[in-house]
């Protein structure tokens, strides 16, 4: 029987264990230019004991930013900033992928340097509000991507993936989950297009397939992962036919030979084994745990063969040495969500590791 603490080969890399640090936006790229900082290098290096670190969502283009102080991967300064992060993680023997996250309509012009309207699949705003420097404001109506905009978006993902490699990342995870741009295209409420990128599942998966295929072609499929979250309504997403849509998606992606599929599981937990069966490659699972964070019991997913890797968000935020703590049965620091986004060292790099035992 495999355990979560056994090494595993995923795509191009051999990981020392199967405990993954899930992507978490921390909004600490303060200062002009959305450049990763030295403090971010410290934070990720502290967590290098993960089998794989997936970074916070990183915008592949200026228009792909939605939240305050999130880092990018579209300028030379950002590449240089990330190089400090990847060097620090590699010095500790870690493996690190950048999560490329284009937010689409989950944005506000007050949060970005360019200050222009967000883009989306269709002119349908998300219900709800987003935090801005002057407080929460309603989501604006996005500008629908035209044919040229779609092409430019694919090209931006490719350029950012190449930048990730230049910055020393071991690969990229494409963010197709949680209501951001790629998920907006997959959905039946944010995507009302009548061109080849909308309509039935074949149309709605098209942008995701094009982005994944183009990035895989550019840097090698064996260092590209995709994150999806079927049946997750977060960020005002509705999916009337999620099973049909995601099965069409995995069928289209299987021939590419990606490093992994990362499933942020939604309420339809019975769909996960169906996806597992249909997906030809490695499956990383972030299990559905409403009202709680993923805990030690998730290690059984690997032991039972329900997943190849398991990803931890909140517990990794609060426990820099999480794999070691899981292996020893705890104890665990408690995550403090009040310091999750923005700020500095506090609630970021000051969670203690367990003392070394002789
Ligand atoms: C502070 C915070 C920021 C997050 N940011 C992202 C993100 O940038 N990209 C993403 O795909 N998921 C993001 N998530 C979701 C996590 O990756 C994970 O799916 C979620 O926390 C549930 O897992 P858990 O119970 O282990 O925390 C975030 C979660 C938290 C707590």
Automatic annotation (TrEMBL):
Q: Name one GO molecular function term.
A: oxidoreductase activity, acting on the CH-CH group of donors, NAD or NADP as acceptor
Q: Does the keyword Flavoprotein apply?
A: no
Q: Which UniProt keywords apply?
A: Oxidoreductase
Signal peptide, first to last residue: none
What InterPro entries does its record include? Aldolase_TIM, OxRdtase_FMN_N, Oye-like
The yes or no answer to whether the keyword Oxidoreductase is present is yes
- List cofactor names only: FMN
List each copy of the NADH:flavin oxidoreductase/NADH oxidase N-terminal domain by range: 5-329
Question: What do the Gene Ontology cellular component annotations say?
Answer: cytosol
Q: Belongs to which family?
A: Belongs to the NADH:flavin oxidoreductase/NADH oxidase family.
Q: What is this protein called?
A: 1,2-oxophytodienoate reductase
Query: Organism, per UniProt?
Result: Micromonospora haikouensis
Instruction: Recall the taxonomic lineage recorded for the source organism.
Output: Bacteria, Bacillati, Actinomycetota, Actinomycetes, Micromonosporales
């Amino acid at each position: 029987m495999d355990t979560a603490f056994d090494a595993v080969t995923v795509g191009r890399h051999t990981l020392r264990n199967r405990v993954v640090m899930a992507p978490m936006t921390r909004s600490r790229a303060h200062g002009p230019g959305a450049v990763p900082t030295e403090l971010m290098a410290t934070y990720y290096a502290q967590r290098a004991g993960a089998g794989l670190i997936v970074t916070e969502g990183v915008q592949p283009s200026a228009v792909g930013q939605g939240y305050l102080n999130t880092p990018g991967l579209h300028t030379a300064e950002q590449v240089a900033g990330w190089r400090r992060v990847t060097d620090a993680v590699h010095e500790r023997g870690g493996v690190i992928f950048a999560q490329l996250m284009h937010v689409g309509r989950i944005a506000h012009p007050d949060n970005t340097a360019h200050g222009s309207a967000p883009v989306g699949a269709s002119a349908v705003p998300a219900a709800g509000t987003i935090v801005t420097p002057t407080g929460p404001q309603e989501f604006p109506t996005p500008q629908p991507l035209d044919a040229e905009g779609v092409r430019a978006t694919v090209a931006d993902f490719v350029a950012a993936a190449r930048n990730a490699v230049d910055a020393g990342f071991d690969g990229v995870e494409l963010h197709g989950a949680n209501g951001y741009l790629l998920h907006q295209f997959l959905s039946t409420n944010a995507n009302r297009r009548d061109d080849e990128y909308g309509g039935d599942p074949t149309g709605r998966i098209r942008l995701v397939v094009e982005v994944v295929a183009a990035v895989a072609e550019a840097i090698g499929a064996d260092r590209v992962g995709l994150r999806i979250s079927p049946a997750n309504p977060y960020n005002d997403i509705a999916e009337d036919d999620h099973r049909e849509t995601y099965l069409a998606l995995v069928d289209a992606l299987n021939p590419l030979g990606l490093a992994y599929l990362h499933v942020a599981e939604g309420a339809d937990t019975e769909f996960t084994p169906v996806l597992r069966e249909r997906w030809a490659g490695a499956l990383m699972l972030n299990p559905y745990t409403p009202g709680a964070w993923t805990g030690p019991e998730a290690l059984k997913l690997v032991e039972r063969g329900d997943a190849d890797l398991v990803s931890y968000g909140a517990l990794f935020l609060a426990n820099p040495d999480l794999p070691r703590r899981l292996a020893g049965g705890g104890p665990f620091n408690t995550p403090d969500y009040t310091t999750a986004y923005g700020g500095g060292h506090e609630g970021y790099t000051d969670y203690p590791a367990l003392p070394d035992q002789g």
